[in-house]
Amino acid sequence: MSWLFRRGGTKxxxxxxxxxxxxxxxxxxxxxxxxxxALDAMIELYRTERFDRCxxxxxxDMLLFQWGAYEWEGPDRFSLDVTRQLMWSDPEGDxxxxxxxxxxxxxxxxxxxxxxxxxxxxxxPSELDGFRAFVESTPAYAAxxxxxxxxxxxxxxxAE
Length: 160
Description:
By secondary structure, this protein is α+β, with helices and mostly antiparallel strands. The protein is built from five helices and five strands.
């Protein structure tokens, strides 16, 4: 179980750079990702890359899929997002919570409105197959999976 909490590997603050390197190795342009490609990339990165001090057993490294028409996105906008949340303590002992997100925004359609708003967490790599099956079964994902009209917004920021 040492892979759950290894030391000497990738630092959590390098998460965005790790995503960029991952996309580059696969010949993917981050500005031209579709939701399907973004989901594939985030799932594979989660499956293969662990970060120092981010303890899976204590929800220190999770994936989140969320969607909906949210007030802060603006009127008649639909948001679909896949996020990797990393939690760790820095050398001074302060807890850090950061999120690496790929978010898409689309003009709201009736199909998207009908999809509502919700989310789903994946707490461990062993849950990835069920997580992917859930995401792919949602009307929200089906409505935009291969839609290339929206350039994704990729952010790595503190969630606190």
